[in-house]
Amino acid sequence: MFDLIIRNANLPDGSRGFDVGLAGGRIAAIEKRIDAAAREEIDATGRLVSPPFCDPHFHMDATLSLGLPRMNVSGTLLEGIALWGELRPLLTKEALVERALRYCDLAVSQGLLFIRSHVDTSDPRLVTAEALIEVRERVKPYIELQLVAFPQDGYYRAAEGEKSLERALDMGLDIVGGIPHFERTMEDGRRSLEALCRIAAERGLPVDIHCDETDDPMSRHIETLAAETVRHGLQGRVAGSHLTSMHSMDNYYVSKLIPLMAEAEINVIPNPLINIMLQGRHDTYPKRRGMTRVRELMAAGLNVSFGQDCMMDPWYAMGSADMLEVGHMAIHVAQMGGIEDKKRIYEALTVNSAKTMGLEGYGLAVGCKADLVVLQAADVVEALRLKPTRLLVVKGGKVISRSAPRIGELFLEGRPASIDPGRDYVPRS
Ligand SMILES: [Zn+2]
């Protein structure tokens, strides 16, 4: 007896027409035809069934604050940081919780059930940490939320940066963050990584650093991060977020750097939407793209996953909690439009992110947790093209969100009465 059987599903590996049986909170069977009863059956009608999306880099303390206390006029990173500085003293726990919960509602409807959020620890009040810890608890039945202690104003640069970060970790944040390129000097940036990796090693926590989010090719903190990772035996538990300076680095230097990163098993987290929006701002023409070297890093065996970073906050007025929008942008900025490239981009939004976040029992295989999404698309390549409606979102074997398919009705002489963009335009092979 199954709790739920989803019939006639297409799977992320390209296989078609399988039944997926869920029981006891786990995926209990994936077969061509499951001949068994279930409390509920759903016909996926040849749509893609995928594990849920994961966002390994987000700022849930800032999301939905767009317009508070004013708009970012220049649209630059620096005005965004200044604007956040204006808003921060006005933040209240209640407002932070309300915005974060509202964001999580949207995330669920988009099939986004695993989120790693940075939490700004610069204000010693730590109202951000207090609020997000409450949110982590409240959303636990449907979203796994990981929280990074993030010294936005600099670990050494902010007045009480060091103390606040340690206090936030004492309160129960999960991961050690940092921002070496924003410290006063390169030397302070280097020292901050030494201190932060030591703290992580002592506390047994992972590390996730906003690292080299700049166009300066001499911003080489990733080198220090990789070396400190190896020194403390933190291989596989450290993430380098952004790494945009790698876009502008000398090729010879990168040929030494990437193997060093591979040795440290650094998890690479580019944020394509934000990188293409914020980098290259000091360029006239030609303008750099500013995203890190995704293809080369993947080829070297590094685990690359993509983050959304922002939605409707001081840095980025756009966003929709849609990781396929992130993947869609990644395809363009990394120029990874080949069919195999796109399959790897989809993995980056799902299994690679799960690896970055250290998720247990994630995936679409027998024995994995009964969490999945049914999309209005036939396969992963089509999903990236269409950013389709998430028809169903299942968590622990239960449907937690349902959306009607997007169907266009037409009133044209001699043409069809309706179109389903996820079915009627699939490439004919
Ligand atoms: Zn960020």
UniProtKB/TrEMBL annotation:
GO molecular function: cytosine deaminase activity; isoguanine deaminase activity; metal ion binding
SUPFAM superfamilies: Composite domain of metallo-dependent hydrolases, Metallo-dependent hydrolases
Domain of life: Bacteria
Keyword line: Hydrolase, Metal-binding
CDD domains: Bact_CD (cd01293)
GO biological process: cytosine catabolic process
Every Amidohydrolase domain range: 40-400
Keyword Metal-binding annotated: yes
Keyword Hydrolase part of the UniProt annotation: yes
Stated name of the protein: Cytosine deaminase
Origin species: Ciceribacter lividus
